[in-house]
Design a protein that fits this description.
Number of helices: 14
Largest sheet: 8 strands, antiparallel
Helix content: 25-40%
Distance between the termini: 40 Å
Length: 525
């Protein structure tokens, strides 16, 4: 039985748990088992207007209405205590049968119900609970606010931009962990590592219908795929790259005595490492460059989709090596020059050069400056695998330089996996699909003696169960994106960035231009 079918059945037959309440209210109990008639009669039992019943046909809002109906049912049995009402909402599958079966619980007809005057404190508590529940429903299923924390999308989106993300654009997801502290992501406020969610109840992935699908070049918010495992002491670093580096280090150190897994054991002994469900992984925002079924190729930084040049976002940035004229060019002069063209960060590249992220327009302005000797785009030549300075292993997907000698500037060609599509799998290309098969799609994957074994059987092909996307930052050379951790599964897609309502410059004070007025109230392109 599918997830959608299960959810629909639970919703339609939920009043069946109150069939004994129907009896106490003088309504034939069989009506509690007839879809929608049961809600009609239940609405009359709690003496609510017809529009309550009509709202049940509105997705997402109907969940909130059912919670209200449960509370009103408790009131129909004289339960005006806040604790009773809270228990009825948290444990309705137990509380509703209790009211129906208990000989001591009496149904009170509408004409005999006492109007309870609430104290100011109770009114405030009720208002706060209502606001929290309503905001949680909106945040979970409709619209959520995000802040841009890094420069990976500059100049399209700036550090300090506050934006709204539409979950209705692609369809909201059912939370994997529905029991969680409201308005926080994965860690409780005022704590360092304490989880904000409970994993007693885990719901399977399901996405409600949305207004459309992910389109190529959309700015998409998604759950970070490599965030399934996290070193809590260094959450801003990729656990899997740290693991690869550590294993390489131990391999060099111990030589013939090295045993696979020594690095993993070292990390688990030294750090606090945790696993996170999909909905509690870090939220990233990147631009969708390739859709399921597309073939992606990057040649000297230029992205090609199915052999055609991809769209270049306005003001997209690349790193340029900038050499000033003469050796008397000071750091202060370089900083001032960078600020005049709107560049807030750069890095020393050598004794007399800097590495600076620039748009084509900024690069042209800088090139015309007589005090600049040369300016050229920083480029990793094709066929050379990228390893960071001081590193021991490549961070470039699929982390298999023996078979895929790619780097961030020259990458592919790579076909995007599509639901229902099949590919041949071999020991030579399994690195591309290892995580899809074994992690994202939950199969038992074993590689042994040159054979690939899936769920106990030797496999030479594989059929994908869901769609996958390729997402990259507009600040192309300063973005941790799909080039580093690979495909983004459909079940990790959160929503579409649609509107920036506020933009703050973190380096300025409130009376010194902190609010970027010209960047506020703009749509995301």
């Amino acid at each position: 039985m599918g997830v959608l079918t299960t959810l629909i059945l639970i919703f339609l037959f939920f009043p069946a748990f109150a069939y004994k309440i129907f009896e106490k209210a003088g309504v034939p109990n069989w009506m509690a088992f007839v879809p929608m008639l049961n809600y009609w009669e239940w609405n009359k039992i709690i003496d609510k207007p017809v529009w309550w019943f009509l709202i049940l046909f509105i997705p997402f809002i109907n969940i909130f209405v059912v919670f209200l109906m449960i509370v009103e049912t408790a009131k129909a049995f004289g339960k005006f205590n806040l604790l009773d009402q809270a228990v009825s909402v948290i444990f309705p599958f137990i509380y509703l049968p209790f009211l129906g079966f208990s000989k001591f619980e009496k149904y009170i007809t509408p004409d005999r119900r006492v109007v309870v005057k609430k104290t100011p404190t109770r009114e405030w508590v009720d208002a706060i609970i209502f606001a929290v529940v309503a905001a949680t429903i909106i945040r979970t299923f409709m619209l959520e606010a995000y802040t841009i924390p890094t420069s990976s999308m500059e100049k399209s989106l700036l550090v300090g931009d506050f934006l709204f993300v539409s979950k209705l654009s692609y369809g909201p997801k059912v939370p994997n962990t529905p029991i969680a502290f409201p308005f926080v992501h994965h860690t409780l406020p005022l704590t360092k590592f304490t989880k904000s969610y409970l994993e007693w109840i885990k719901l399977p992935y399901y996405r409600f219908p949305g207004f459309g699908d992910v389109n190529r070049y959309d700015a998409v918010v998604f759950n970070y795929p490599s965030g399934d495992t996290v070193i809590l002491e260094v959450q801003n670093q990729d656990y899997y790259q740290i693991l690869r580096e550590t294993e390489s280090k131990f391999q060099q150190q111990y030589g013939a005595q090295y045993q696979p897994g020594m690095g993993r054991k070292y990390l688990y002994d030294k750090y606090t490492i945790t696993a996170r469900p999909v909905d509690k992984r870090e939220n990233y925002i990147k631009r969708c460059m390739a859709l399921p079924g597309d073939t992606l190729l990057i040649v000297d930084k230029q992205v090609f989709i199915d052999g055609k040049k991809a769209f270049t976002p306005e003001n997209m940035q690349f790193n340029y090596i900038v050499t000033p004229e003469g050796r008397n060019f000071s750091q202060a002069e370089m900083t001032k020059l960078a600020e005049t063209i709107g560049v807030s960060e750069y890095w020393n590249y050598s004794s007399n050069t800097v590495l600076m992220p620039l748009s084509e327009k900024q690069a042209s302005i800088l090139k015309s400056n007589p005090r600049i000797s040369s300016i050229e785009k920083s480029l990793e030549p094709g066929g050379i695998n990228y390893i960071p300075m001081g590193g021991l292993s490549t961070p470039i997907f699929p982390h298999d330089p023996a078979h895929f000698n790619w780097n961030q500037d020259n990458f592919g060609p790579l076909l995007m996996p599509k639901a229902g599509a099949s590919i041949n799998i071999t020991p030579e290309n399994i690195a591309l699909y290892r995580k899809i098969i074994g992690v994202y799609e939950g199969n038992d994957l074993i590689e042994k003696d040159g054979k690939i074994i899936i769920n106990g059987s030797v496999a030479t092909s594989y059929t994908f169960k869901q769609d996958y996307y390729w997402l990259m930052g507009d600040n192309r050379d300063n973005s941790a994106d799909s080039r580093f951790w690979g495909f983004v599964p459909n079940d990790h897609i959160v929503g579409k960035a649609v509107f920036v309502w506020l933009s703050l410059d973190k380096d300025k004070g409130w009376f010194d231009g902190k609010i970027r007025w010209n960047k506020c109230l703009r749509t995301v392109k």
